[in-house]
Design goal:
The longest helix is centred in the middle third of the chain and has 22 residues, at 227-248. By secondary structure, the chain is an alpha/beta fold. The protein has 14 helices and eleven strands. Helix 7 crosses helix 12 (278-296).
Length: 376
């Protein structure tokens, strides 16, 4: 069996062209992040039928961010796309939005003869999907030998899909919802750590922008604009500012300074934002998202500002307590040698806490210990 890293490398190399077409119908720019690729959407159509059959497990926003460009740009015939969702209402909505797309009443039915199976479910439902695919693979033979799994699930590493589903060809990516209108960005990498990082910026990033948008619109309404006018002003301000930054290539600080006159209106607004720790709140939100992505994948979330990576000391059982098993102590939680001894003692048979071996009580103290024990 190939290791997960080899599976990632070989699958990514073999399927790059096809997966790009799904998540990014026509690439107009590449951004290199070590060996990470961030791919931007354009509206140029390419050839149809990338795979003989694509199955989407889950039909939420991430699934639709891929479904829309596939169908709207004639990349894949609707009849060769199958969708499954636990919600009948969600499946009916898919049928309305994407006429011709097939729907299935079970995972086994949906994945039958699928060349590409897209995991677009919530992270907490991944194990249930694994069990269904594993059963279909080993009991009913409904999974093709050359089937590939593509995960857009936040946090879950590739090896968990290989081990959980039994399918050996697995790729992982992180799209975002603006892909539904051909304006999204999808990231995948040979180094999975970049997937988790991109989740916190491009994957969840639209939510941050929408929250800012909402706050600006509400402020405009509060000042007296109609909601429609305030919405138009905010939409075009954000759109124009983004395009301006992209086309000029200037550092955001330079662009901000160009709008900010000394003692002017913008300077007053920036003062309030800085005083309210606007930058810090944004950065903390992104770090929180990244940490949550790591936690979902069973990894340590002790990363970033204010977090300390756990440091462990291994004490050989041959030195302490005469046991063959090593004792692992989290040194971050040990303030002194004495505290280390107190920490180790319960872990090692035959070792008492404290500086000296504990002698059995005798005389008056024996009675005190017995009485004390009765009242515990």
């Amino acid at each position: 069996m190939m290791t997960s890293s080899r599976i990632l490398t070989s699958t990514t190399r073999q399927l790059t062209h096809r997966l790009r077409a799904i998540t990014d119908p026509s690439i107009t720019a590449n951004v290199a992040l070590t060996r990470t690729r961030a791919l931007f959407f354009s509206a140029t159509p390419t050839a149809s039928d990338i795979f003989s059959k694509i199955t989407f497990l889950g039909t939420g926003k991430m699934a639709q961010s891929m479904l829309s460009p596939l169908i709207n740009r004639n990349l894949q015939a609707p009849s060769s796309i199958t969708a499954f969702d636990v919600s009948d209402a969600a499946l009916r909505r898919v049928e309305q939005l994407y006429p011709g797309v097939q729907t299935a009443s079970s995972i086994t039915e949906a994945i039958s003869d699928a060349q590409l199976i897209v995991y677009a479910v919530k992270p907490q439902n991944v194990e249930k999907v694994h069990a269904e695919i594993r059963r279909a693979k080993y009991e009913t033979g409904n999974v093709r030998e050359d089937a590939t799994l593509l995960s857009v699930v936040a946090g879950k590493p590739i090896h968990s899909f290989v081990e959980g589903s039994g399918v050996q060809r697995v790729a992982r990516s992180m799209p975002n919802t603006p892909a539904q209108i051909g304006a999204g960005v999808t990231v995948w990498s040979y180094d999975e750590s970049f997937i988790d990082m991109s989740t916190s910026i491009s994957g969840s990033g639209p939510a941050y922008i929408f929250l800012l948008m909402e706050a600006m619109i509400d402020a405009g309404v509060h000042m007296g604009f109609s909601r429609e006018t305030a919405t138009t002003l905010v939409h075009h301000t954000l759109l124009g500012s983004t395009k301006f930054a992209m086309e000029t290539g200037e550092h955001p600080a330079v662009l901000r300074n160009s709008v900010t006159s000394p003692a002017g209106t913008t300077a007053s607004a920036i003062y309030e934002l800085e005083n309210g720790k606007f930058r810090t709140v944004i950065k903390d939100a992104i770090w929180a998202c990244y940490r949550r992505s790591l936690e979902m994948g069973g990894q340590s979330s002790q990363v970033g500002p204010g977090r300390q990576q756990p440091s462990y000391g291994i004490i050989s059982g041959g030195v302490v307590g005469g046991t063959d098993s090593p004792v692992i102590v989290d040194l971050n939680n040990v303030a002194s040698v004495e505290e280390m001894a107190e920490t180790i003692a319960p872990m090692v048979p035959g070792v008492e806490s404290g500086h000296h071996p504990r002698e059995p009580p005798s005389g008056e103290m024996r009675g005190f210990d017995e009485d004390h024990a009765e009242h515990k």
